[in-house]
Amino acid sequence: MDRRLVTIERHIAEQQQQFPEATGEFSRLLRDLTLALRIIARDVRRAGLTDLLGSTRVVNIHGEEVRKLDELAHDVIFRAMDHGGHLCVMASEEAEGLVHIPANYRRGKYVMVFDPLDGSSNIDANITIGTIFSIYRRLDESLDTPGTVEDILQPGYRQVCAGYAVYGSSTQLVYTTGLGVDVFTFDPTIGEFLLSHPKVRIPPRGSIYSVNEGSFALWDERLQQYVTYLKTPSPDGRRPYSLRYVGTAVADVHRTLFYGGIFMYPASRSAPRGKLRLIYEVNPLAKIITEAGGRASDGTGNILDITPVDIHQRTPVFMGSAEDVTEVEQFLQGIHSFQQCADVESV
Fold this sequence. Notes:
The protein has helices at 8-16, 25-45, 68-81, 149-152, 221-231, 249-259, 278-291, 322-332, 338-346, and strands at 55-59, 65-67, 87-92, 98-100, 110-118, 129-137, 161-167, 171-176, 181-187, 192-197, 208-210, 242-243, 262-265, 295-297, 317-320. The protein is of the alpha+beta class. The protein folds into two domains: 8-197, Fructose-1,6-Bisphosphatase, subunit A, domain 1 (Fructose-1,6-Bisphosphatase, Chain A, domain 1, 2-Layer Sandwich); 208-346, D-Maltodextrin-Binding Protein, domain 2 (3-Layer(aba) Sandwich). The termini are far apart.
């Protein structure tokens, strides 16, 4: 464990030194973003005292009711990021189309996509919620014109930074720029994010599965077999797995990052393309899990290889410990079945 007292600002500066060609623009972008996360964390903590709980009575592009904190978080991130001169365009889960940089501000070479407040259904119950984000380079970095939808619709492997903040018993910021996954915990007494868990690695296999099992009857039979397999005791004691499900994707993935196992939001008969958004939610979380040594799949292949065709595209997702994700893929592809595994274990 690195026992140095390292702030997020110092960590960003130290990482920048590893790239002699760096101009500092990307580092300044991250500093602007951490300011927005501090403000959101403050407002989440005080929401019950400042009339920020409840609904705005507005329905967003996804047909979901917008909560007051959703709207506030989107506005805070936009106001922190629109004038720095680092971004050419943004996209938010709460906006129907692109979020453009105002014409009176300089435009930069980066693109940012974000889910301002993941876990809206849990807000009023004081259950862990979070902010998810990722940053790309625009396709033509020589331009100073407004960014385009093509700049947004890039596969996840092109992310230059991905991360999330979780607002729970403490506020933690998790991010990667391709140099490992680092976790910072916010100390409200000094107003700083401090490095608390450097270079996190996900266990190769876990003992927890995370899924909305209330939809079991709506799943493909092969996925039903896999979950039944996880719940069935094995002779070696490795199973049954424990079910843990918060219902906030960022919270469930955060637990999976530390403890291992598998987080699933599969397709179903009621949601044949899945529910989670590829650009705003799945790609950033998948980048974190992958950089920590895990895997992220849509059931057939690497999530990060998918080229989006719509900014609000949805996808099934299975992410977590590498061995667990490989195993669920084998069930979904018919390589394994519950009966086959039971026959092998009985020998």
